[in-house]
Design a protein that fits this description.
The protein has 313 residues and is mainly beta. 7% of the residues lie in helices and 23% in strands.
């Protein structure tokens, strides 16, 4: 269990020091050929173990929301992210956002003050931290009586089956098992090849290999496998090359940055993905990675806007 020391400086970061770097990105990517990696509901055909005898299928892209129409969708490509335009989040915004405070599914049954996908409050009306007012209070996860606070449980994902209850967010322990503990294929001489940092179609991020994976022939071998302190540029694949790797079953999590209130930071440089697990009264756990480290069990203030990648059991 690791806390984000950087939060003492009021900033979302994997680093243990204050980091005020701001490099928002809104990339335009080439169209990727239709991939056979996902089914008609946008779920990966490959499986990923998240606990002993428990596997999931990941969604085909990060979760996105459009307030003006109340529409949820998955990103078109795994490497897509919104970037700086998340700063425009509001109840009437006609664009898309993909950085959300914890438990902001739109369900108000948990008693949270801030539960809308567009909420960006850092402090409440009395000037206190708003973190305690996001998601279920105290030691409650986005599970059980509070499962509807999970984006994938409460909402219909328009290109993800379009039915409520089809998806969910990984727990903190599942992120840890996925990246640190599971048994999977040997890749380029590394047993249990779970992940590798990479640049895909010009986007920094994290490749996560399924339980069973064979690298397509003719592509550069993956390096720095299971290496938490590796740089992104140790592996570099074009959109066309990634299409082959994706079709073989691999997952990609773009380094989409984070949002502090209405300010987007380190988009394209650091990646943060919520879990459904509470930390303490005003924190929640998440996956964090950048070009020098990776932690699947950091925790962060609940008002901070982070990425969401959903799964199906």
């Amino acid at each position: 269990m690791i806390a984000v020391i950087g939060l003492l400086f009021g900033f979302v970061s994997c680093d243990r020091h204050d980091d005020t770097t701001d490099n928002p990105t809104n990339p335009t990517n080439p169209t990727n050929p239709t991939s056979s990696a996902f089914d008609q509901n946008g779920a990966s055909n490959s499986v990923f173990s998240v606990a002993e005898n428990k596997t999931v299928h990941f969604s085909k892209g990060n979760l996105q929301y459009q307030a003006s129409t109340g529409t949820w969708r998955f990103a078109e490509h795994q490497y897509d992210f919104i970037g700086a335009d998340n700063a425009n989040a509001s109840s009437s915004y006609a664009g898309w956002i993909d950085l959300f405070g914890w438990g902001t599914s739109g369900w108000n049954g948990s008693g949270a003050t801030y539960y809308h996908p567009w909420d960006t409050a850092k402090v409440d009306s009395e000037g206190n931290s708003a973190s305690t007012q996001y998601g279920p209070t105290g030691s409650n996860n986005l599970l059980g009586d509070y499962a509807n606070a999970d984006w994938g449980v409460y909402n219909r994902i328009s290109n993800g089956g379009n039915q409520a209850g089809m998806w969910r967010t990984l727990t903190e322990s599942e992120w840890v098992y996925l990246l640190n503990s599971r048994n999977c294929s040997t890749l380029n001489g590394t047993e249990n090849a779970r992940y590798a940092k990479a640049v895909v179609s010009g986007i920094n991020g994290l490749i996560v290999f399924p339980d069973s994976f064979i690298m397509p022939s003719g592509l550069a071998a993956v390096t720095n496998i299971n290496t938490s302190n590796a740089a992104f540029d140790g592996n570099n694949y074009t959109a066309e090359q990634w299409s082959q790797i994706e079709s073989a079953g691999a997952l990609f999590l773009p380094a989409a940055g984070g949002r502090i209130g209405a300010e987007v930071r380190v988009a394209g440089e650091e990646g943060y993905y919520w879990s459904s697990s509470y930390g303490i009264d005003y924190y929640a756990y998440y996956l964090c990675f950048d070009g020098t480290r990776l932690y699947p069990d950091y925790y962060n203030s609940r008002y901070v806007g982070l990425s969401v990648r959903l799964v199906r059991d």
